[in-house]
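Service request form, structural biology core

Requester: graduate student, group of Dr. S.
Request type: structure prediction, single chain
Budget code: on file
Notes: please return the result as structure tokens.

Sequence provided:
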Amino acid sequence: MSLTDLDHLSLRLLDIAAQAAFKVEGLLREGFAANVATHEKANRHDLVTEYDHRSEETIINFILKQYPDSRLLGEEGGHRGDGAVQWFVDPIDGTMNFASGIPFFNVSIAAALNGQMLAGVVYDPVRREMFSASTAGAFLNAEPIRAIGHPTEAEALLLTDFPYADQAITADDYGLFADMVRRFRSVRRIGSAALELAYVACGRADAAFLGLGSAWDVAAGMMLIEQAGGHYLPIERLATGMWPPSRCVATCAGFEIEQSLLKTLVG
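Core staff response, request fulfilled:
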């Protein structure tokens, strides 16, 4: 089967994204081993470090050099460039973990053309795990992955960061979280949206619920989920209007969403 022009572009963009992530591996491992200073952005729960800024600048400069026809949206620096290919860059997804010495953070980079996601990488520099997706499929360290897991809540592991400390938490929120704990086999709050999606894509978890976040948090993870055969279901009532939709429920293939508490979230 011959590759289309779009497939070739997808593979090229994936290679650029992976190289960009590897470019900052040493920097992030260095920062993770240090007692890095943090600064608040929106509030005390939303932190940034010099390594977020340095990592993003390195990634963006590399992408623009390799593929000048680009425009980029970075978590720290906002928009840059006006080219055809849209990139989404989260230089450290899980900054609180990174700054606290918890080895659970990643670099997330994705690329799209005309509203179609073509490439995505989620790279964990501590475990040296590269989750990647193109139109050719989804992979972990070059080995194919599939979003295969348990079909029912009673058997399933759910990943989420809900409820969110920087939002007003209501009694209904506490009730929803309690229902999740009762109904799922296990619920984990792990502090990294991209890795939550990557873990569903490779079958380590069965479902993820993300009720807060931005496009750069989920762009690569959404590509991973879809190419691994899972389901990425936007929560329309929480939509921000930005693409890709960042508030979502993601599940492995075969998960009985119609019978799940999560069905009430996506409608």
